[in-house]
Amino acid sequence: MTIFIDFHTHTFFSDGKASPKEMFETAKKKGIFISITDHDTSKGIKEVNELPVIPGQEVTTQFGHVVILCNFPPSPPSDIKGLVDYAKENSCVVFPSHPFDIFRAGIGDHVFDYKFDAIETFNSKANRVANGKAKEAALKLDLPGLADSDSHVPSAIGSAYNAIELSEFNVDDILDSVRKKKSKPVEVGLSGKAKLDIVVWHIQRKLKK
User: Fold this and answer.
1) What is the spatial distance between Cα 187 and Cα 121, in angstroms, rounded to a whole number?
2) Alpha helices of the chain — where are they, by DSSP H?
3) Is a pLDDT exceeding 90 seen at residue 120?
4) Domain Polymerase/histidinol phosphatase N-terminal: where (predicted)?
5) pTM for the whole thing?
6) With b meaning 16 or more CB within 10 Å and e meaning fewer, what string describes 14-52?
7) What CA–CA distances, in Å, run from 170 to 94, 133, 144, 174?
């Protein structure tokens, strides 16, 4: 059977609006599994250990954001070389998120300097030019492309995900499928409601500071 997975979402343990359980339940209603990839923390994952969620982080490296996905709540270094080494040593998957988005800490041409497992080639919040450059880089490096929502609000879930042929949810099998280029990116785009919710949440966060 085919399962659908969004490898890049955020909760209120970093800069997202909702709880890990709310994000999971929203995705479940849409028939999608998620990875929780809060910025530089695995606290959110520890709240949903009993649920079928992929543990991860979006790590703030010296060059920009890189996502790591593991079968356990990771505690990776922030140095990008150390992060890639940590991923290899622990059988994790590591990929640059929105790498050419100059407004959201993409690592840019550093995608060519390290041995990643994949590249996020469609980020629902990145512009067309940035996503296009990411696709070109994936082709040059012969790496699988991933489509992710980068959701910070529940309504953005479903705007991008990946299709994988598996009989059941199993983190190790999912990560292995990514490495073997057996995942297919599905590009949907943000709904009008999601776009509005993102703007409102951005304003609310600004007012809280």
Assistant:
1) 10
2) 20-29, 43-46, 80-89, 128-141, 171-179, 192-208
3) yes
4) 5-63
5) 0.97
6) bebbbbbeebbebbeeeebbbbbbbeebbebbebbeeee
7) 18, 31, 19, 6
| Residue given tokens 């490495």 in the structure block | 179
For 88-141, give the DSSP string: HHTT-EEEESSTT-TTTT--GGGGGTS--S-EEEEETTS-HHHHHHHHHHHHHH
Beta bridge partners of 57: 68
- At 49, the amino acid letter reads N
Residue 87 belongs to what domain range? 2-208
Tokens found for residue 104:
């959201």
Count of domains observed in the chain? 1
CA distance 150 to 7: 8
Instruction: Give tens-digit pLDDT for 175-197.
Output: 999 999 999 999 999 999 999 99
